[in-house]
Automatic annotation (TrEMBL), chains A, B, C, D:
One of its GO terms (molecular function) is triose-phosphate isomerase activity. Keywords: Cytoplasm, Gluconeogenesis, Glycolysis, Isomerase. The active site is at H97, E145. InterPro entries: Aldolase_TIM, TIM_sf, Triosephosphate_isomerase, Triosephosphate_isomerase_arc. This is Triosephosphate isomerase. It is an enzyme of class 5 (isomerase). The gene is tpiA.
Length: 226, 226, 226, 226
């Protein structure tokens, strides 16, 4: 667990791209594992639910789910049960991603469930105000991603540095133990360095790496300046 | 594929019970496989997404997803992409289960996607009217489950036989190629026989088997009268 | 009621534009009423919930809600109860608009509730397949609106005439009593005439009129060729 | 506005009961107005959207909406636009009620929109943790309602006093300007007094009054001990 949360951390959200599905997910996770071994950076992969079992058995880096539902075991056809993703090998989960926003009451339940299962919680937010709000819930990580920059190629760490700094400040004022991640538009070593310089403990990213011609090279470049 | 759709069919929806999660899911699928071999009945298991890969690799019976989202590959964190569940080994999917109701426009997309991928669609409905509506969309199966009987232990085939008969009638009037399943409250051989006598081609069931002391015995009993 | 459903019909969806909110909604409804009086066309306005009471008291043309929820009277804070919109003066309601898509089971409930209350149901759909599906539910009107054309200024009756024709055909094959409306991109007299020539009984439209410099003139132009 | 937020405050959520719809809503609002006049207590009514216009024109007490959507003016058929409910006469709105839970990002938008429009925000929460979370967003009121007690007739102020006390404490630690309301199961003068003694500034209630044989008497009893 301690190792799973080690910073600086790079969390690669596989989303639902074909380039990060099935056998492609295995290859991308393997590339991430190699970068982790070569650089010592804590590399985490967050594949789709159906790929968690396979990936967690094939690579030796943390695997996170992309979402868990705020449901207890029972009659919830089609929901993502934390017990199931954990047994499949997940070490943590993203929650409240901009593409999977949750109701506040459900975010609270999900953070508590992850803590009870000794799994890492990465709570995504869209601005300083909602980051402050969720900091009171004590997730392990808050990942700030201004929605307008997601998938834009414009790094939040450069386009809106005051959002990253402001988020780090309000979160640490509420709970200094929470680590802050910077998402949205991050893809290069400069982007990541800028994020770290602003106080972030790592990055959450997706298409910038997944769609790269050579994802391993892109990951090596990403972590090259920290 | 033909084999996957063969009737009479028994589809066991694993829902999100702990008794049908992870290693328990493997055991339950193995029991289903044994019943299929011993009886020749087409037994299908529908585990949670994270268990699809493992189950499809360990048992030699069809594995269905519990749900797919009406999304194309892309930026849809936390969604269930059909390409992913298919590559994990799913041969079909439930859609519009009463615990995961979908918008009509999304049901239409999901049925089309399953057909395009040569996967079996099992479209759940709640009454005769919605069964007629979805029959026009040409799913492989329509599973009629009056919500008030789900998990009740009261079999729809006995409590409301006119719903099963009426559903079979309106569906076959629209498209005789669609098979009709009977869900909700089914657990014994008598329940299943009553369903088949009313015109159903099989059953969709869950807790009656999953929560049984001996699921394999319960499955053998279920199919004993057909 | 008969009068409320009379065709050709023009239903003006006020959506949530400021140009059709509050006092502006009153003015727009008054313009619609004048056009109804001058031309004899059945003009219907569909304002936001909070404007229904005022409009139904100030104009003498039918007023429809934009949506009703599939809930019974009870503890449903924030929901739109059919009894409330009816008592406020609504004569019918749009349901399943592309900006307010509903679950299939809820569409079925809403159509039945509207019929029970002697209110007109206008069921929006996105393509031929979903139009056929809902025709089995016996709404008064089906309004076909390809989502990609909504608000585009490109009239579906000209850009995709085969969708309008195909929808009319499949709906009337299932139930000849259902009237078909054409939505999406309609704004001129030519657009509406093209829709009627393809078999539509009227149009459902919004921004083309609401955003016009002179909405009354725009409405007069709209109905000038039928 | 100051007057609208004056405490002690009683907010009566009309929900979607027939006893508080249409003409019944007018009568209930009139009873509330009489109690306000007789006792000097700040009585607020929160009717359904379609009843706001009529009520705000007939009674001289604050009228709140039950919900607003986090949308800007535009193409959002069926949504509840803040500009519309304000022009209809609403002075504030409940948001995130347990029967209308919102995504965190949308709660943030709704609170900001209400402040911009000089309207009162009453943000409902389910426990101490989510109350602390939303306190950072600076709503005017936080209304704590443990979901299991809503409509139960068991007053939270007696059944779970530590939740009320704990909520008051965490909220005032974050922002002492926020007023705390106590909801769920409140119906008598004793219940309300117990709530006030625990630090609440008022109550949010519904069925206990709406379903009473004589709502005015029930309201007079409610405020009799403060």
């Amino acid at each position: 667990m301690n190792n799973t949360k080690r910073t600086p951390i790079v969390i690669l959200n596989f989303k639902t791209y074909l380039e990060s599905t099935g056998i492609n997910a295995v290859n991308l996770a393997t590339a991430s594992e190699m970068v982790a071994e070569e650089t010592g950076i804590n590399m985490v992969v967050a594949p789709q639910s159906s790929d968690i079992y396979q990936l967690s058995n094939k690579v030796n880096i943390p695997v996170f789910a992309q979402h868990i539902d705020a449901v207890d075991a029972g009659g919830h056809t089609g929901s993502t049960l934390i017990e199931c993703v954990k047994e499949a090998g997940a070490d943590g989960s993203l929650i409240n991603h901009s593409e999977q926003r949750m109701k506040l009451a459900d975010i609270d339940v999900a953070v508590k469930k992850l803590a009870q299962k000794n799994m890492v919680s990465v709570l995504c937010t869209n601005n300083i105000e909602t980051s402050a709000a969720v900091a009171t819930l004590k997730p392990d990580f808050v990942a700030i991603e201004p929605p307008e920059l997601i998938g834009s190629g414009i790094p939040v760490s450069k386009a809106e540095p005051e959002i990253v700094e402001g988020t780090v400040e309000v979160i640490h004022k509420i709970d200094p133990e929470i680590s802050v991640l910077c998402g949205a538009g991050i893809s290069t070593g400069d982007d990541m360095k800028a994020a770290m310089d602003l106080g972030a403990d790592g990055v959450l990213l997706a298409s910038g790496i997944i769609k790269a011609d050579d994802p391993k090279e892109a990951l090596l470049n990403l972590v090259s300046k920290i």
